[in-house]
Task: structure prediction
Amino acid sequence: MEGKRVLVIGGGTSGNVMTVLLRRAGINVDLVEVKDDWNVRGSGITLQGNALRVLREAGVWDEVRAHGHGCDSLGLTTPDGTVLHVSETVRTGEDDLPATMGMQRPVLQRILVDAVRASGANVRLGTTAEILTQDDTSATVRLSDGTEGRYDLVVAADGLHSTTRAAIGIDAKPEPTGMAIWRVPAPRPTGVEHSHLSHGGPCYIAGYTPTSEDTIYAYLVEPSRDRATIPPETYAEEMRRLSEGYGGAWDEIRESITDPAQVNYTWFERMLVEGSWHRGRVVLVGDAAHCCPPTLAQGAAMALEDAWVLSQLLTSGSAWDEDLLRRYYERRIDRVRLVVEASVQIGQWQLDGVRGDVPGLMDATMTALKELP
Result:
């Protein structure tokens, strides 16, 4: 691997882990991220066991475990807060990893940022990249700071609305599913030990997930609305209003929703790039290649698995050629399609008012994901 150069575009979860894994193999990596603050923001994130497996491979599991909240169960409640059922969730990682880990998203990002810094990668923040030319072995890239570089491979980890994806001629775009989600970080109510979900009431889903010893993130899923009709300064008020249909821990959560800047409103979207995830020397990972609603909480896991599988192939001793990049796609596409289609189906049943077999679909999907990618 000596002498190989890789440019990673995007310093989110998949781009950061990709960088760490490649640097461990001695590959020279430049990482560019468009945001000056390295995108250290957000409310919370749920990491399933197969995501934790990759984070352990990247060497950050001990910190993730210390700063998050792991559990193996999920509670279903009525809108008034009455617990209907608590089920054990499938461990999609190894047996010594919890089924799920809730974390504050900024904390996870800081852990990964520190790992990238420690890896010795060359990081440029507030920077974008433009592919100038490609041949059979490399790509020439111009950065927005005016410098140019030649790379053996460019990894596009620049997210759902990837400009790199469009620039290399892949015309796939995310499509809204008809649902939207409100998210907010909040203090952890007494007695909340695992995630709880309520189906029904004024929203399709009302839920909350512990993210540390004293924090959670709470979320409400409703039909998507034109964002232009919801002024950002009213976000806290609007989320409180929607939450009034829910009792139990929501009574305490609702009191803490006061800062509109802490509330995030996002549409659910879906996308799956078919055929291949590369063009020449540029290859997609994570949300740049696929996205799905968070109904299975597998978005981060799929992105992390992309980085793991691609890094395995790049460090296997095989030639960095078309065959290798095709093998990456072939190892990923069926698994990712399974997650995207199941995640969309769960939401569609709710949109259509159909009582689908949500537990059965979730269990079948998670059981399939126990297999290594």
In short: The domain at 5-71+97-174+269-369 is CATH 3.50.50.60 (FAD/NAD(P)-binding domain). The longest strand covers residues 175-187. The first helix runs from residue 13 to 24. The chain is about 35% helix and 30% strand.
